[in-house]
Request: fold
Amino acid sequence: MATPHTPSLPWWGPARLPFLALTPACVALAVAWSHWRLAALGQSLNGLDLALVLCGALAAHLSVNALNEHHDFGSGLDARTQRTPFSGGSGALPEHPELAPLAWRMGLAGLLVACGLGLWLLARHPAVWSFLVPLGLIGLLLVVAYTPWLTRHPFLCLMAPGVGFGPLMGLGTQLVLCPPGEGLNATGVALTLIPLGLVNNLLLLNQFPDVEADRSVGRLTLPMRWGRSGCVPMLGAQYVLAYGVLLVLLASRRVPACAALGLLTAPLAWQVWRSVRRHADDIPALLPAMGQNVVVSLITPSLVALGLWLA
Reply:
């Protein structure tokens, strides 16, 4: 076992690197949509803008992960949580408390990098600053306020992850990559609802094992207010939102038929919902569904993006 102050310490643990895969999956959807629109205009993606958008989104995600880890360790939540592969934190700080200051600095650095890259994008695209500034400020608020404040308000806590990974990342990416006047339209906005519903469900289901621990530190999540079984309809409704939006866009021919690749995960989402309905209060039996829910959240926007790119 690693001992304090040895090079083998998992100093990167608070960043929760495996969870960062969600960012490129969600950004890819907005990038593919932008590429599809640009191709219709005879234009192509700007590589620098694409790199700045992706790096900024990853920095913001890393920041909220590290700040959440630092806050949960300081509040004592980590000591009360039964960790699963999908919930309960990384475990890095309870095992190595000396990393707590590093986690805070990591979170702050990620936030500053995200803000710096956002300002760079504003300088490159002044024509859309009136849209980008509000999106950036809301994103900044979500990163800073999520753990200490939003987790005490069930519906804000429910919606915050999906809003961040859906409309904020999606619309911001579209505004930056598309020409002025082309960055926002109804179809692009609708596409951001796919990750909104899926990411909300990802965080909602991952809160199921933490109900008692969250209650002990003053959090108030939806599974605490409604009970785990009471959240099953909400889980289903958000799956319906994600796949329903895609079906409507396909039926109305607002997106190419290849985007139907995203529907390939619908049977798995249905299986997750049935499993949660059956095992809502049995956490060990719920673990396979939690893993499948992660797959749905990552693969669905990626498949839609692939379909748009192929078209």
In short: The chain has one domain: 17-310. The longest helix spans residues 47-75.
